[in-house]
Amino acid sequence: MATVLIVDDHASFRASARALFEAEGYDVVGEAADGAEALDAVRSLRPDVVLLDVQLPDTDGFALAHRIAENGDLPRIVLTSSRELADYADLVETTPARGFVTKDELTGQTLADLLEH
């Protein structure tokens, strides 16, 4: 069972994503509302997967993905946003993220599909 850290500044989205992933058999080990909390959580919780919103109050998900990757033993990162991939395609391609999924298309299966690549 993969462990997941959910990083998003909206508590309602974190709660929905947690319920969705737990129903699909993932172990949600933590949540973070901004980049600073996310970095601390990645270090302390060592999740297998980080679901990372691209727009956070203190940084953007693209920069944060690079910061997470600096530690070497990086979790698999999946970026998410309410906006479409076309809005971010070049940025997504240059990050260490496994992929991107819009929030309205997020399911346990879409996460699993992205992690397989």
Question: What can you tell me about this protein's structure?
Answer:
By secondary structure, this protein is α/β, with parallel strands linked by helices. The protein has one domain: 3-Layer(aba) Sandwich (Rossmann fold). 40% of the residues lie in helices and 22% in strands. The protein contains 5 helices and 5 strands. It has a 5-stranded parallel β-sheet with strand order 2-1-3-4-5, sandwiched between helices. Strand 1, helix 1 and strand 2 form a beta-alpha-beta unit.
Percent in strands: 15-25%
How far apart the termini lie comes to 17 Å
- The beta-strand count equals 5
**So how many helices?**
5
SSE order in H/E notation? EHEHEHEHEH
Mind telling me the C-alpha Rg? 12 Å
Features:
117 residues, alpha/beta, Rossmann fold, five-stranded parallel sheet, 5 helices, 5 strands, globular
Structure at a glance:
This protein is of the alpha/beta class and 117 residues long. Helices cover 40% and strands 22% of the residues.
Helices and strands, with pairings:
Blueprint: E1 3-7, H1 11-23, E2 27-32, H2 35-45, E3 49-53, H3 61-69, E4 76-81, H4 89-93, E5 99-102, H5 108-116
Parallel strand pairs: 1-2, 1-3, 3-4, 4-5
